[in-house]
Amino acid sequence: MKYTLRDINEEDFSFWCKIDKKNFKKYYRELKNNEYVKNFIKNKMENRLLIKKIIIVEGKRVGVYVFHFEPNKVFFINELNILKKYQNKGIGKSIIKEQLEENHNRGMMTLLTVFKTNNAIEFYKKMGFVVYDDRENHYILKHI
User: Fold this and answer.
1) What CATH number should be reported for the domain holding residue 37?
2) What dihedral angle (degrees, nearest 10) is formed by the CA atoms of 68, 75, 71, 44?
3) pTM to 2 decimals?
């Protein structure tokens, strides 16, 4: 499925909140600390260092792609969040594949974070990621 990316704008924040709530509700519930969850969501949406993109398919917002650059040539994927209706259609795979190729050409390491109970771990492993760091609620994965 063809997609485009564009910078997120103020009108997109309600969409981001909606998709975040729908797709991550299960994982936030597992954290059991409501204040932590509120601060986590607020920080990721307000963080000025993050590059936030809206994923567009056929003129519709279908997801959010968020990343940032760290020192020492590290590219960090903070979030790849796609509406359920558009999952398993190759969008996420294409985004990751293109990003990995770009990062490889730049000589950059690629890391991402994923909740430990998220089925997407298998998707990322198929894309060549391995567990790099084990945190309390999530893994940091590294592309090899």
Assistant:
1) 3.40.630.30
2) 30
3) 0.82
